[in-house]
């Protein structure tokens, strides 16, 4: 009995970390496939519509079946909240990010994506979704670790340095190499779109956490997000995409990228992220964003044969140091909350099994 209880406690503490690391790894694969498809001429407006539409077809029936017996009642105010979540977290965020990359470059997109942790932290504290006591050692470590991780992510993105294992080159760059091919106005406009996309994602994290306190059925929340987002994205695509042939998909890569994006990007990662938001809070989820750049750099070397540069190594080390600081601070906060008995179900790992119906409940009950 004591062994089973220890296993439950360990799983409850470890699973949010493992889930978010998995999300960042899956996002790297999704970004690679989608960029390859769009470089062949696929419209990003169409891509977003198709991937979310297939995700809705998978999610909505599954979630209603999964919660058929103990589904909380849906009200008009909740549907309006789901509509807003779809608008912010899918329609605005995805379209702003893809538009910004088209106007500027993927490098700038990666750099400005690291604004998400800072935006989320500020919004969560302002909205009181995340409780931060700067007198606490754990909170201090979380803030410092997040700043260190963001710094490392900027180094990976903006500083290349000499290559490792080959003859050093003189390409020490702090701006993208294709900057001269872009007009200054497009570069600035693209940066504004990317910053807006990062802010939209941060708002989604915060609103999602508040929504889960009112309606703790993660899969249904994600399903309606995707459903409303699909409708909104389709309206945007019909207005902005003037070429009717853009809706015709080319075989192979485009089909594969949409299938991967719909299953991974619209089903798996939003469900895992929503569950982690309920368990640990929006700031915890956002802090994993810089980790994705380090994962992308190393996966590019291992699977795509990319050259490893000094900036990637130095930045990845800094990211790992900051990331460990965040984890250390979070563990101290969890210990303090357990000791003080201040568990509110959001922003803490001390959530009991009946509050985690999506993943944790399933695995833990099977282990008993």
Explained architecture:
- The protein is an all-alpha fold and 368 residues long.
- It has one domain (2-367).
- It is built from 13 helices and no strands.
- The chain is globular.
- Mean pLDDT is 75; it is low at 167-182 and 344-368.
- It holds the Pfam family EamA.
- It is found in: Membrane.
- The chain crosses the membrane at residues 12-33, 45-67, 79-101, 107-129, 141-159, 187-207, 219-239, 259-277, 284-303, 309-329.
How would the blueprint of this fold be written?
Elements: H1 2-39, H2 44-66, H3 76-103, H4 106-113, H5 115-126, H6 137-158, H7 184-214, H8 218-240, H9 253-280, H10 282-286, H11 289-303, H12 310-340, H13 360-367
Helix pairs in contact: 1-9, 1-11, 2-8, 2-9, 3-4, 3-7, 3-8, 4-6, 4-7, 5-7, 6-11, 6-12, 8-9, 11-12
Per the principal axes of the C-alpha atoms, what is the gross shape? globular
Task: Name the helicity range.
Answer: over 70%
Q: Roughly what is the average pLDDT, rounded to an integer?
A: 75
Q: Any idea what the radius of gyration is?
A: 21 Å
Structural class: mainly alpha
The tally of beta strands, per DSSP, is: 0
Q: In percent terms, what proportion of residues is strand? A: under 5%
